Amino acid sequence: MRDWEVRVSILGSDDDAEATVVLLSDSPEHLTAHGRSHRSGHDRAVPEIGDEVAVARALRRLADQLLETAADDIEGITGEHDVSLRAR
Fold first, then answer.
1. Are strands 5-12 and 31-38 parallel, antiparallel or unpaired?
2. Per DSSP, which regions of the chain are E strands?
3. The pTM of the whole model exceeds 0.90
């Protein structure tokens, strides 16, 4: 069994939020991604919503990076080129 962890850090205010997510895995190189949100002036200030949006965007970017890393690894092992993995 292998355990991977995702560390989420959020820096935010009433209007803006920035999230950083880091995948801590068996690899010595950790994947990191960022996400941001900005509240529209027409919306009520609810910082939790901004946090959710920023974290979701960061996690989506992290997932894309992980798929790219897996595709690169497959190419390296099989010698195939242009391996494409889709999110399902």
1. unpaired
2. 5-12, 16-24, 31-38
3. no
